[in-house]
């Protein structure tokens, strides 16, 4: 199995605690509401949101993906860290065994924060990652981030 690692960092005018809550505490309610053209539902299969929780994400028909299952490996509200992996669904299979994410959100002054994400793509055998699929996945992630950011800016009391 090979591993390809990408690191991404985004600074936003949103307070760190609010961003963490939107992405990792309330995402099962927030994402389908903000992205009705992309996400149909997010349901807890096992657990209640902390480490060990398994979620099933259903996308709308006709899109690139139909569904995926994620597992929260580490959930630290105090330090604003969430580590999770995609282990089943349309994003994995083929050449990818799993995708793992290590996300840390840190305050950086003036009510802003920085979101650092380390993404690890675990391939099967000697498989090579399809760069076009990675690009599509990154574009969807950026769209989700921008939608959440916009919602929090427009609604300053949400998750405050």
Which terms would index this structure?
Bet v I/Major latex protein domain-containing protein, alpha+beta, 41% strand, seven-stranded antiparallel beta sheet, globular, 160 residues, Alpha-D-Glucose-1,6-Bisphosphate, Chain A, domain 4
Describe the structure in your own words.
There is one protein chain. This protein is α+β, with helices and mostly antiparallel strands. The chain has a single domain (3-154), classed as 2-Layer Sandwich (Alpha-D-Glucose-1,6-Bisphosphate, Chain A, domain 4). The chain has three helices and seven strands. It has helices at 16-25, 27-34, 131-154, and strands at 3-12, 39-46, 54-59, 67-76, 81-89, 96-107, 113-123. A seven-stranded antiparallel sheet has the order 1-7-6-5-4-3-2. Strand 5 (81-89) and strand 6 (96-107) form a beta hairpin. Helix 1 crosses helix 2. The longest helix is centred in the last third of the chain and has 24 residues, at 131-154. One of its GO terms (biological process) is defense response. One of its GO terms (molecular function) is signaling receptor activity. It holds the Pfam family Bet_v_1.
Topology:
Layout lengths: L2 E10 L3 H10 L1 H8 L4 E8 L7 E6 L7 E10 L4 E9 L6 E12 L5 E11 L7 H24 L6
Antiparallel strand pairs: 1-7, 2-3, 3-4, 4-5, 5-6, 6-7
Helix pairs in contact: 1-2
CATH class wording: Alpha Beta
How many helices? The count is: 3
Under CATH, the topology can be stated as Alpha-D-Glucose-1,6-Bisphosphate, Chain A, domain 4
Mean pLDDT: 92
The quaternary state of the protein chains shown equals single chain
| Overall domain count | 1
- Which shape, going by the Cα principal axes? globular
CATH architecture: 2-Layer Sandwich
User: Structural class of the helix and strand makeup?
Assistant: alpha+beta
Q: Indicate the radius of gyration in whole angstroms.
A: 15 Å
Query: How do the strands of the widest beta sheet line up side by side?
Result: 1-7-6-5-4-3-2
Span between termini: 42 Å
Q: How much beta, percentage-wise?
A: 35-45%
Biggest sheet: strands, sense, closure? 7 strands, antiparallel
**Secondary-structure element pattern, one letter each:** EHHEEEEEEH
CATH superfamily: START domain
Pfam family, one: Bet_v_1
Protein name: Bet v I/Major latex protein domain-containing protein
Organism: Cuscuta epithymum
InterPro entries: Bet_v_I/MLP (IPR000916), Bet_v_I_allergen (IPR024949), Plant_def-hormone_signal (IPR050279), START-like_dom_sf (IPR023393)
């Amino acid at each position: 199995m090979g591993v390809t690692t990408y690191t991404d960092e985004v600074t936003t005018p949103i307070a760190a605690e609010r961003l963490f809550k939107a992405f990792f505490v309330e995402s099962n309610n927030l994402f389908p509401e903000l992205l009705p053209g992309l996400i149909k539902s997010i349901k807890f299969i096992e657990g209640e949101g902390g480490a060990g929780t398994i979620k099933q994400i259903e996308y709308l028909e006709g899109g690139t993906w139909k569904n995926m299952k994620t597992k929260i490996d580490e959930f630290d509200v105090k330090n604003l860290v969430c580590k999770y992996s995609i282990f089943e669904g349309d994003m994995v299979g083929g050449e990818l065994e799993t995708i793992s994410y290590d996300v840390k959100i840190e305050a950086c002054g003036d009510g802003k924060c920085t979101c650092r994400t380390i993404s690890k793509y675990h391939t099967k055998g000697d498989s090579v990652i399809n760069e076009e699929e990675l690009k599509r996945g990154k574009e969807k992630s950026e769209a989700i981030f921008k939608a959440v950011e916009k919602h929090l800016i427009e609604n300053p009391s949400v998750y405050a």
